[in-house]
UniProtKB/TrEMBL annotation, chain A:
Protein name in the entry: RNA 3'-terminal phosphate cyclase-like protein
Family: Belongs to the RNA 3'-terminal cyclase family. Type 2 subfamily.
BP terms from Gene Ontology: endonucleolytic cleavage of tricistronic rRNA transcript (SSU-rRNA, 5.8S rRNA, LSU-rRNA)
UniProt key word Nucleus: yes
PROSITE patterns linked to this entry: RTC (PS01287)
TrEMBL record, chain B:
InterPro entries attached to this UniProt entry: AARP2CN (IPR012948), Bms1/Tsr1 (IPR039761), Bms1_N (IPR037875), BMS1_TSR1_C (IPR007034), G_Bms1/Tsr1_dom (IPR030387), P-loop_NTPase (IPR027417)
PANTHER family: BMS1-TYPE G DOMAIN-CONTAINING PROTEIN (PTHR12858:SF5), RIBOSOME BIOGENESIS PROTEIN (PTHR12858)
Organism: Brassica oleracea var. oleracea
Designated name of the protein: Bms1-type G domain-containing protein
SUPFAM superfamilies: P-loop containing nucleoside triphosphate hydrolases
Amino acid sequence: MGKTTYKRLKGSQSFRQRLLLATLSSTPIIIDEIRADDMIPGLLRHEMSLLRLFETVSDDCVVEVNETGTRLKYKPGIIMGGKNLVHSCALTRSMGYYLEPLLVLGLFGKKPLSIRLKGVTDDPKDLSVDTIRNATLHILKRFGVPSEGLDLKIEARGVAPEGGGEVLLTVPNVQSLTAVQWVEEGMVKKIRGWTFSARVSSDFEHSMRFAARGIFNNLLPDVHIFNDHKSGPAAGKSPGYGISLVAETTAGCYISADTAVSCGRTEETGEIDVERRERKPAEDTGVEIASWLLQEIEKGGVVDSTHQGLLFILCALCQQDVSKVRVGTLSNHGVETLRNLKEFLGVTFSFRPDPSTGTVILTCVGSGLINLSRKLS
Amino acid sequence: MAADDLMSSQKSHRMRKSGPTMRKKSEIDKKKRGVADNKQPNPRAFSVRSVVKAKRLKIRAVEKEQRRIHLPTADRTYGEPPPFVVVVQGPPGVGKSLVIKSLVKHFTHQNVPEVRGPITIVQGKKKRIQFVECPNDINGMIDCAKVADLAILLIDGSYGFEMETFEFLNIMQVHGFPKVMGVLTHLDKFKDVKKLRKTKQRLKHRFWTEIYNGAKLFYLSGLIHGKYSQREVLNLSRFISVIKFHPLSWRTSHPYVLADRLEDVTPPEKVQMDKKCDRNITLYGYLRGCNLKKGMKVHIAGVGDYSLAGVTALPDPCPLPSAAKKKGLRDREKLFYAPMSGIGDLLYDKDAVYININDHLVQYSKTDEENGEPANKGRGKDVGEDLVKSLQNTKYSVDEKLEKTFINLFGKKTSASSERKLEADAQSSPEGSDAESSEESQSDDDVDDHEMDVDSNDGKIKEKTELRGGRLRRKAIFKDEVDDSDEDGDDDDDDDEEAEGAESDGNEDEDGEDESVSDSQDSDEDDVEESEDKVLGNISKWKEPLKEKGRKKNPNLMHIVYGASASSATALINENNEISDDEDFFKPKGEHSKNLGGGLDAGHVNSEDCSKFVNYGNLKNWKEKEVCEDIRDRFTTGDWSKAALRNKNSVAGDEGEDDELYGDFEDLETGEKHNDHENMESGTNEDVEAAERRLKKLALRAKFDAQSDKSELEDEDNDNGDGINPRNSEAKEPGFVDKLKEELEIRKQMNLLELNDLDEDTRIEIEGFRTGTYLRLEIHNVPYEMVDFFDPCHPVLIGGIGFGEDSAGYMQARLKKHRWHKKVLKTRDPIIVSIGWRRYQTIPVYAIEDRNGRHRMLKYTPEHMHCLAMFWGPLVPPNTGFVAFQNLSSNQTGFRITATSVVLEYNHQTHIAKKIKLVGHPCKIKKNTAFIKDMFTSDLEIARFEGSSVRTVSGIRGQVKKAGKNMLDNNAQEGIARCTFEDQIKMSDIVFLRAWTPVEVPQFYNPLTTALQPRDKIWTGMKTFRELRSEHNIPIPVNKDSLYKPIERKTKKFNPLVIPKKLQAELPFASKPKNKPARKRPDLDARRAVVMEPEERKAHAVVQHYKLMHKVKVTKKKAKEQEKRKAYEAEKAKKEVISKKRNREGRRERYRTEDKQKKKMKRGQD
């Protein structure tokens, strides 16, 4: 027992999932050659921040990074959870990046998790906090997570360059997750949306709303888009606006699409293309996201392509029962997730394509992970 | 006429209508008809007298009802259960082997020469039992207790209970209590019937107190011809067979294998080179507990943790009679399997396999070998026979072969290679004469003949023939499975087998091979399905091509996602075109789409970690109505029936694609599936509901079955006929539990449905090996001692390790010293714990939780209380019980179990604290501030304690401020603290600082490697302090300050109080000091002479005279009184002596009479 055997991995890909799964399955890992050949080698700022977040949430985890940051040694500890935790995220990625693994991690903690994250709340790369609040949390509930104590409170907005947003995440503990049979997509019965604007005129919001509603007019009358104009300290440090749309179906599935536009100055070299796109008018953004939502609905599946990874992870963490879910076209991230799940938890999925609808039905037997760190009362 | 008269004259029998006989008969009749006797003898006796009392009774009844109910647990064992493990345990010399032998004889009519290792027997149509004899050392007992489903405790009736029994009971209780049955033996030693009865009674009640009231204790009255009497063995076997086993939580969450065979598969060359090299071993046994996945780590009890290098499912060596198809009349059902005991035809030794066939069953002839096609198929010749014949035919003698290699007839890789070497040598010899090839030819012909192997006693040969199902390429399959099992994929092995395969069937083309693979898999699957699920019973032949199709397709996406695996390599070549068909549908549209082509490319290992799927490039113009119409039905505003159709289609997904190709099958399929398990798709709108309903029905049926079983059992339990059993009625069970049970059952059925849809390979990939499968586990790099010191009498337990259970951490447990262990346990004394599958030595620190939540360290465990124990070791989930020992030796007289405990939680850090009291003395006092020395040793230490409160003995409170280095004049002494007090303290005061200091739990964990040493040797680990001291003759260290000694106090001497003159002058007179010093010379008053007048002198003289007279008088009186008293005293003493004497005599007299009376009474009583 004195010598720990590390699982050896390479590259920076699916960093979050690797950390998450390593922690859940208590597998020590070594990741080599992290961006070894890149211009900026090693771990990026948000990745370091994520590591620090893992350290905050868990107890006695060991993180060793070499000087260039190209090699990471991670020995997971015990997930503690706890109240009044604070973590300031790196501003290179938005909160969605941190929240996605944290949601799952919090479920298997010793104590219910309540953490305040500070940083960028919305950006086009990651899930916006609105989407997490209104779609992702519903997916978790499907797996037997109690709805009490599962909440995401958006206390301040913050968009890309400067951030300044603040959210409060509370996640309850579970003993184990229950397997799902989730193949029925149902029909979209309502679409809800949330727009926000921070440090910019609320006209942006209105035009986005108007444009998005215009798209849905052909299909569904029950469309509601709420606006959320922030000013003062609650609006963060940079100007920007964004939209998040969620379609709810009769079978209780939530399909989402979102984006955020930052009107701040361009600073980083790596974000040129993002900045270029942002120049288009707010109406276009609204139309784009609304169309994207319809595209996702067209693809089918019980979750959108963005949530596929999370769905698979949750399925794999269930009790040793058969889970069956239907997703649309497998996304890249989904496929990567499947590989990681096989690697860490030994959970293999079986696939049954359904050509008539263009969807895939995935079946797996959960790994039977139970929350071991909970204290025996 | 006459006859009629005669007949009629005969009186007909008249039934009795009354009387005691009739009453009895009618009662019996009623009972038979099941009519309950409702008539109460006294109807008023049970009427409600007091409402309060009735209410209380009702509450009590409900509470009892609730206590009976347990949270239902999900049963995740699908398919044929593994044999139940019956552990026979008892102190040495109580007759354990004999009981097993008798039972085996009873079940199988087979004599077992000696009991070594588990013996599996078929007990009934649906039940198998594995007998295990528990060895006499505590390690064996622990391992046995962990696997036992039923423990038979043998007790020497003539001697009484022995410690082993209770130790075993306690071990079992901690590791989940399996069923227990006691058996009294040696009862023939009692000559006195009365004494026998009394002993039975006494032992039974003792047994009951230990387990529960009414626990079964069985009596084996004695030996007849060296065996227990048949009747009693029969009864015992009946009791064994009706016992129902309930799941134990640890075992249902961890897979485990009780190995009934161990083989060393290290390449012999390697062993020859270095006898002490690490070995590769294979272990065989039934999988129990839960499903075992391929990448799992295992713990071999007494050896250590290993990852499985390979897992292979073997055909059942001892199948249930229902599962095994009987081929010929001569094929006797195999009712037992005991590879290490030496019964049956094969005997497995450490490095050889001996075949043992009765002479009259074999004819040593070579006639069959001449014609290539032996005509003995119908006769069902034993495989063993063939083997023996081939052995006769070999060019090399057995000894010779043994010298070169160990015989390994059954296609083990290493031996195969060695065999091949021999073969190559003997290439010139005719085919039939070679051992290997003759075997091969035999199997060639048994194309569809895998019943034959059922009879053969060996798992491997069976596996071989079965896998050879249609073709020669047995090795390919074997390789396949091996490859599946170990993901690393040993290249050299593959090469070997490839070569072998090429050798054996060069003429076969790839396609043929592929077919054979799938064929054999199909048959496998069929078997499994048939045996496992009655609902899915007959899958008709026509479905096979469909299945094939479905299976071929499945690896496609799987292949895309999981990358190339060895199993699907050939399939891919065949189906390239099909993949391209699918690609339109299942090609992710992301930028890294080429990433999906195979495994992880080097170029994309650094791809960005982003879950969001963004591809705005090819957005359709959703403003157009036509575009919208495409997805109209996905909205509630669309066509609901179409949407429903979408869902329906989805379920039938895999068949849907084959419409064009297999159109003709489609009708059949749907037609079939109306009454088959997949009728979901055939329904119309409410197919989902229908499926649900069907599932519910299945669940209900299963539940009903379970209940009927249970009620039967209950009837048996309380069959003393108490009429209506109020607890037995299921209707009384609250709805919640019912609902839970139903949900679980539905879930189980759903799982079965889903899993049975998959083909065997995928299923194993997804689910792992099911419980009840006979597995071959290959483990590499095991210390050679395990093989060298292998003792079949000791159980080899291989337990799966769950997530996180192989990493070590601190565990906190609630521990109680066992009440029979004589001593309390000391903190930091190593104990040996048995926890989960493991046994290891660790160093605990005991603690107790204070009222404020602090964990205070205890030096010793409390005598009769639980305490907390914190120790370091491989983590186990909370709620796992464990048992602690200090000494494992068998020749110890006392009770070896020192403590029992349950793990509460685990942590990566400890929170135990102990009290610390720092003592210091003031070295300088300034008003309320004082500088304290001796309390701390350094300024750093002071910094740590800044702000903590201190106190003097007299109770003056204070606070540590800072290190007082600078304050002290030029004295640069470290560790002087400045403290402030609420009042000025004295230099003579002692200052205390009370604090709590964390206690570190030693990170010590030492696994017990009892299997790596001779079994009779006692394992020794770290020694306790006491042992070390006694060994090295070191006395117990004594702190002299802690000793009690008489308190010596010096009398305090105070200096005289000096009041300054000035002050004195100002004082009021009352306060002025008045003790003037004595004068040297008398003062004037004293010195002056007094001259009296003559009258005065006379008066004075008179007074003087009177005074004198009075004085004389008083002295005289005094003398007189004294004389009187003296006389009186003398008188008194005299009297006292006399009375004392008298008293003594009186007492003596009294005692004597009392004694006499007592004796008399005693005599009277007797």
